[in-house]
Amino acid sequence: MHPLLSKLETAHDLHDMTLDELDQLASEVRDVLCNLLTTRTAHFASNLGVVELCLALHSVFDFRRDRLIWDTGHQIYPHKLVTGRYRQFSSMRTKGGLMGYPNPNESDFDLFMTGHAGSSVSTMLGLKTGDDLQQDSGRRAVAVIGDGAFPSGIVFEAMNNLGGMKKNLLMVLNDNKMSICPRVGGIASYLDRLRTTPFYTGLKSEAVKVLNQVPLLGDPVERLLSQIKEGIKAGLHGGMLFEELGFRYIGPIDGHNIRLLRKYLRMVQDLSGPVLLHVVTEKGHGFEPAREDPVFFHTPPALQSLHKTPTDSDKPADKPFTHFASSAIHEVMSRDQRVTVITAAMCQGNKLEKVRDDFADRFFDTGICEAHGIAFAAGQAKTGLRPIAAIYSTFLQRAYDQIFQEVALQNLPVVFMLDRAGLTAPDGPTHHGLFDLGYLRVFPNMVVMAPGDALDLQPMVTFALQQETPCAIRYPKTAAPSVARRIAPVELGRSEVIRWGSDGVLLCFGSQLQECIRAAEDLQQEGLEIGVVNARFVKPIDHDMVKRAFTECGFVVTVEEAALMGGFGSAVLESASNSGLNTVQLRRLGIPDRYIEHGDRSELLSDLGLDAKGIAGACRSMLERVNIS
Questions:
Q1: Closest by CA position to 32, among listed 208, 286, 391, 256
Q2: 537-554 per-position pLDDT tens digit
Q3: How many domains does the chain have?
Q4: Is the same domain home to 189 and 281?
Q5: CATH code at 530?
Q6: Residues 507 and 604 in one domain
Q7: How many of the other CB atoms lie within 10 Å of CB of 243?
Q8: Is 398 annotated in the active site?
Q9: pLDDT tens readout for residues 348-364
Q10: Which of 370, 496, 515, 560 is labelled catalytic?
Q11: 358 — phi, psi (to 5°)?
């Protein structure tokens, strides 16, 4: 079915292929990508867009020796297919299979496990300087970065450094007019203008060479001629911004024309100094539905389930935490004009489209610039607004300094909505939101919460917006159950007792509440009375509940979908220790001190002992320990 791809032993074999063979190979790669989407969710449109670019790069450079980094990394699939992983490709994003991002453990062609945007130029510059210092300057260096990631502050920090160092490095700007959603901002507008200008080859332009020969005759004639000269050059220079930063700008060129791509990649291969090659591609190229709707097809569900018809049996409990979070945000914005929303290129991921459409003047997308987004939120809060920063847990850590300096230190009422907290299943270690508790609860003034179920989210958002201090609410990318109970009001530092038991108690922080209830019900069949507490807060911790649990129950087990180090269990341990309680009866369940690979969420939770079976097993072992002691 894939005669060329199946026989490809190494990417170096592309050097010997004809243009017709490379075009056929591109078709085979697209066929494999479409086949994958019939079985599982995967990054799709972005990978369709870089097929020709990937083949051109590997047919010109030799990345067995040369250096290549794909920024953000979700467009790595064609690269994996031509670097020896075709036969494993059906295992993509399954437990034990290929990762959906670059992974050095899979192949020497993957230099970094990249999953966050913007770092490629910095790491590539580090590689290049390291090679040069070790007298290995023959290695060529290539960083491929998308236009969505390009406005990230770290990119311009790296370009500033690189332009001054004059290192030989090729930046390929993959311009498809998209991030996940359509990109925003001044850089986006600038790239739009570049795409409408005639092709420009930077300092190779003969017109510029002629202009550079104009003699300088002295002041004030010199100044006049210089101004005329620079004005003419500015008109010729499509990429003037980049050239002012010290780059040789070439482009824009068609990113789906392999012949043209190879021509210009060969042209820039041995140029000295930093070069920016502007390549225009189309997200979803080659698959019409993805081309027409690249937002939906960024990471769509398996194609076989696309046409599922909703039924009356679909219940609100089946909807994800994200749905309830976005609904809560929309509701508070409808009744409080002070509330704004700030997101970093994740409008769709946070399901904020209705918020954006209904409250356009109070919705702000900063692009993939989390640090700027949080400082921006701090400025709004200072004026009396109530900004909500809706940013994934794993991406919020990119703004760590701003959380500290601009928000917590100033004690400003910014509300952080941390979607994708916990395990993000097939996305893997770059996207698991496991460290937010450790990096947030250390800050004075910060309040940190997690809903136990869908019914907690609305009152938590309302509560957070009433505080005069920064608040964070974390929740996972999974279906949100609704636990039947008389719901206790959300009060600062107060937990909610679901059931009580003298044999032991489960203190649950966050999304595993239903699993804890199931575990307690299973243990009840064995004659054990196990309590379940919906902790709600990790900061401030409910000290009264901690004391009650340690004094009234035989054992205490904490449960959290977060790193144990510095997390909820640690907060309980600290509280118990400060109160002089005997902590031998405590066991903490959560994420151990290692990176968790990708896989189905239920598989990962089972492996980590965070499902009902694992939680019940931990209770049994604790009962044995307590009885022995």
A1: 286
A2: 999 999 999 999 999 999
A3: 4
A4: yes
A5: 3.40.50.920
A6: yes
A7: 20
A8: yes
A9: 999 999 999 999 999 99
A10: 370
A11: -85, -25
